[in-house]
């Protein structure tokens, strides 16, 4: 499988660095679903050990740590780049790579690193620093301040995102701006020390990275009480005008959301009968609503699981199961904010968007969870994503932005020149978070009036085969620790020894805590306890 254009550009940049180019920064603007998760592997495979000793990849969520580590083990990626490198999942631990070429951590972990473990590590080794989705870092914010020492020490800094834009319109940390007056005036110019890579949705369509997309809009009527207790009613969410915020929130909290949920789930179940890999993602407005949808679906026999933004161990395990196929896999996931951004599950074919957030970067990120090409799902031209959402103007305008990018590709292809576009969607006037509106009203009732659909771009041929990822380095470490502990407890129980007797002997023998050992050291401990303390 050939590299996509932005991946090849980064590979070429690495070659120029190896030939002596004095480069300190790379900015990669890659449309969601375009394949930016391969970029850290390219950097590690080409620049370690000549330019750097290791790579640190910072992601916005814990679940993306595991995803990043698994990417290093993807057989297709390894064949493409010719490497056998691995990445360790690490959260403020001494020697975070544990013998691997890279470690993956989170912005939250770095902000909580009171002992400055990561900063010490960056002084000990030459590091490439990869900041994934850096729009999460507000300029001069807590995360910016926590990461600044690492940024200053790194031999190369790489910022990569599908949406270089913040929903609150504040400036992003570490991003160059062309003007001191306009907050969104990012400087995309190449300089002697900075390289810029841009990969649009049109590029992704051209290279078959994104699949066909159909949006099902549900128009609703809604009734609510305002703060004075006055009742309001709109007959059509699509034409609610200034009352769109209140009408949308009412629809999401009352019957209309469940009607849309029922419609989307029924369509997914029908599709899944002939496409067994297919998965469904439901994005709710908040944890309370997510719990409500989950209970509602489970009561109707749909094996839905929930993973909210709480980022608990249970949610983490659920998302891992959502990425699997077969026995013990989760096929229907209800989430809030935890699993939409960066979630790479190509098997997602259906997305039900029941959230009130209407910023363009957020909608663009969440919609593209379902548009990834799935190499294991058959020919490219047969794949399609299905989006179910309320029929409010802000959401249509967000989709209009995506549609506008599609037009770039269509204009350059005479074979699809006859396809008509909806010029009424201009991408302006998008609504931000609506929490304040929610506090000023009391939803009463709503109902779906009808559902219409809108197809986007035409499909194109091409597909490839990939194998499922293997056990990550962290999972191997965890497995070895569990095996050692089970053996130790079994020996103590069989000999009726006091708990901790064998563990004390292990520490005296190896002079090191097992939590700080490498895989080779843990393997040595397992062999030693098996020989010294037989069961």
UniProtKB/TrEMBL annotation:
InterPro entries: Helicase/UvrB_N (IPR006935), Helicase_Restrict-Modif_Enz (IPR050742), P-loop_NTPase (IPR027417). Residues 2-166 form the Helicase/UvrB N-terminal domain. Keywords: ATP-binding, Helicase, Hydrolase, Nucleotide-binding. The keyword Nucleotide-binding applies. The keyword ATP-binding applies. GO terms for molecular function: helicase activity. Pfam families: ResIII. PANTHER family: ATP-DEPENDENT HELICASE IRC3-RELATED, TYPE I RESTRICTION ENZYME ECOKI R PROTEIN. This is DEAD/DEAH box helicase family protein. The lineage of its organism: Bacteria, Pseudomonadati, Nitrospirota, Nitrospiria, Nitrospirales.
């Amino acid at each position: 499988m050939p590299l996509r254009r932005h991946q090849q550009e980064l590979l070429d940049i690495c070659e120029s660095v190896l030939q002596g180019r004095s480069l300190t920064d790379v900015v990669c603007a890659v449309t969601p679903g375009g394949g930016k998760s391969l970029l850290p592997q390219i950097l590690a495979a080409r620049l370690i050990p000549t330019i750097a000793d290791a790579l640190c990849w910072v992601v916005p969520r814990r679940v993306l740590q595991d995803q990043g580590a698994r990417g290093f083990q993807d057989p297709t990626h390894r064949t493409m780049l010719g490497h056998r490198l691995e990445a360790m999942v690490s959260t403020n631990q001494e020697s975070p790579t544990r013998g691997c070429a890279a470690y993956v951590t989170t912005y939250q972990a770095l902000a909580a690193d009171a002992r400055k473990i990561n900063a010490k590590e960056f002084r000990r080794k030459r590091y490439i620093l990869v900041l994934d989705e850096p729009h999460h870092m507000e300029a001069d914010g807590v995360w910016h301040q926590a990461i600044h020492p690492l940024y200053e020490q790194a031999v190369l800094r790489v910022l990569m995102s599908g949406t270089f834009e913040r929903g609150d319109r504040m400036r992003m940390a570490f991003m160059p701006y062309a003007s001191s007056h306009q907050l969104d005036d990012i400087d995309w110019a190449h300089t002697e020390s900075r390289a810029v890579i841009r990969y649009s949705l049109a590029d992704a369509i051209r290279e078959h990275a994104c699949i066909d997309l159909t949006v099902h809009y549900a128009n609703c009527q809604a009734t609510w009480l305002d703060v004075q207790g006055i009742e309001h009613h709109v007959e059509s969410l699509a034409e609610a005008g200034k009352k769109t915020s209140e009408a949308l929130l009412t629809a999401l909290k009352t019957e209309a959301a469940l009607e849309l949920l029922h419609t989307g789930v029924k369509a997914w179940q029908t599709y899944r009968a002939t496409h067994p890999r297919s998965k469904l993602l439901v994005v709710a407005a908040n944890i309370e609503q997510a719990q409500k949808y989950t209970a509602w679906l489970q009561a109707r026999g749909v094996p839905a699981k929930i993973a909210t933004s709480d980022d608990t161990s249970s949610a983490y395990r659920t998302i891992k199961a959502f990425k699997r196929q077969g026995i013990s896999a989760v096929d229907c996931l209800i989430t809030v904010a935890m699993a939409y951004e960066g979630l790479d599950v190509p098997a997602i074919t259906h997305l039900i968007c029941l959230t009130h957030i209407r910023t363009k970067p957020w909608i663009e990120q969440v919609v593209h969870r379902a548009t990834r090409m799935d190499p294991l799902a058959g020919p490219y031209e047969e794949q399609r994503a299905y989006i179910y959402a309320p029929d409010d103007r802000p959401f249509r305008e967000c989709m209009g932005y995506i549609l506008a990018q599609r037009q770039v590709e269509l204009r350059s292809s005479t074979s699809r020149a006859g396809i008509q576009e909806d010029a009424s969607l201009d991408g302006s006037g998008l609504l931000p978070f609506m929490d304040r509106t929610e506090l000023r009203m009391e939803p009463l009732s709503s109902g779906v009036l009808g559902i219409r659909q809108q197809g986007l771009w035409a499909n194109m041929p091409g597909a490839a085969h990939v194998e499922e990822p293997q056990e990550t380095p962290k999972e191997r470490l965890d497995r070895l620790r569990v095996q050692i502990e089970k053996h130790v407890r079994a020996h103590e129980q069989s000999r009726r020894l006091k708990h901790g007797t064998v563990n004390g002997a292990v520490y005296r023998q190896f002079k090191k805590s097992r939590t700080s050992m490498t895989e080779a050291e843990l393997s040595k401990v397992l062999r030693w306890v098996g020989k010294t303390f037989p069961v």
